[in-house]
Every structure is written in structure tokens, then in C-alpha cells.
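Predict the 3D structure for this chain.
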Amino acid sequence: MPELPEVETVCRGLAPHLEGRRLVHVEARRPDLRWPLPVDFAQRLQGRTVVALRRRAKYLLAELEDGTVLIAHLGMSGRMLITEGKPPVLEKHDHIVLATDRDIWVRFNDARRFGAMDLTTLDALDAHKLLAGLGPEPLSNAFNGPALALALKGRRTPIKAALLDQHVVAGIGNIYACEALYRAGLSPRRQAYTVKGERAERLATAVKQVLAEAIEAGGSTLRDYRQADGELGYFQHAFKAYGRGGEACGNPGCGRPVLRLVQSGRSTFYCARCQR
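Done. Predicted structure below.
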């Protein structure tokens, strides 16, 4: 499932084509995705101008001139496809179609329909059920060592699980939790409440570095993910831990095999020597 870097990459790819543009045609080709769409979904979007496109956690947010906000989640296989000029030939899994006054067509294609879209208003955005209670953005100034230590205080759960808790920090998923813990030298089994002081600082720094590098590389392509221009992401080639079970640890002087364990139903990859 796309994580923060993939969603950020898609957001940056869409923004030049949608921001400042009027939606002259909106079509919902089915009444639901993962959940039912609002009954007036297309009518509330059509004719409106997109004033801003941004990301919150793993969600795309399109703010319209009248205060309406479109919330979109890519799900497991969702893709935003951009074409220019004449109307594109629609495919079976093109569920939502947007067209701008510059003849830019954006199609939300989702074969598995685990994606989701909803409408709210700017005033009600923070209280929306999908966004309420989310933790700080990991790339923001609000996320640092002391803030992370405070969020982890008293949590008797593995640190890997805590990083996946969107109330602790927003947008981190399984891949980047593994990579950040590896860089920070922290075992995924370590109890979260013990990550404080210098450990918390190392982990917060590692999270920021991993996410920033992944965004620069266009995200990680695993199965269905594509950037908004159709290109693949490339950060998977820089993985230090994730998916490398059985391979030698890349840290100088180590060479022990990367191990795999299952935590909360998800694969975790780590080096037992370098991560304590």
C-alpha cells in the first residue's frame, strides 16, 4: 500500500495540472469505492476551481474555491493517471474522471477498489473521521526527538508497532518503519517507552532522512504503484533492510544476515547485531 513518500510524489505530480484549474467535467462511474461516495459527489466538484492540492498523512486533499475539500486515499492499487488533450479511452477500472479547463484529464484507476474518496469542508477537515487524531507530519518541525519520546511515553508495545500507529506520527507504513529503525540502530522489538533521549533523536532523524530520500526517488514501486506521470518509483533499490531477509547486513564490519520476523501480521526486516 502506498506510504507517505508515494502519496507525496503523486501529490506533487498532480499539483501543476490541477491547482488554479476549474473542473469542467467530473464523472463518478460507480457509486462506491471502498465506501459509498457522497450521493452528490460529482455535482459538488464540477464547475469548481482547485485552489490547493496537498497531502495529510497518506491522504490527498484538494481544496476548492467554495471551501469544499476532496479527500482521496489511493488504497492498495489506486493510481492517478494524467492525459492531455482529447478525452481518453476509459478503462474498466477508471472509477473517477476529472477534466480541467486546460484539457487535462485525471483518472482514478483502482482495480481492487481499496481506495476511497469523500467530501468535507475546510472548516470540518480536521474533525473528519479519516483525519481526526492523526499525529504530526514526520517531515514537519513538529516532529522531532522530544515530541516522539513524549508520544511513546508509557507505551509497552514494540517500537515498530508504535511507528505504524498513525496517532504517534502520520503517514509512516511498514516499509519506511523498517528502514528508519535500521538506520537508527534500534531493534523493532524494543519496547516503545524505552525510546527516549538520544534514541528518540536518532529515530526521528532517521525517519526524516528515509522519507526525504524516498520522495526524491519518486517513492518505492511494489506491485501497482506508479507516479502521477506513469513513471515507476526507485527507492526500493536503496532499501537497507526491507525485503532483504537472508542477505548480508550492509553496515561496515557486520555482514550478518538480515532477519525477518512477523509483527502484527506484517513482515519486519532487521539486523540483530546492529539494531538493539
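Confidence is low (pLDDT under 50) at residues 220-227, 230-237.
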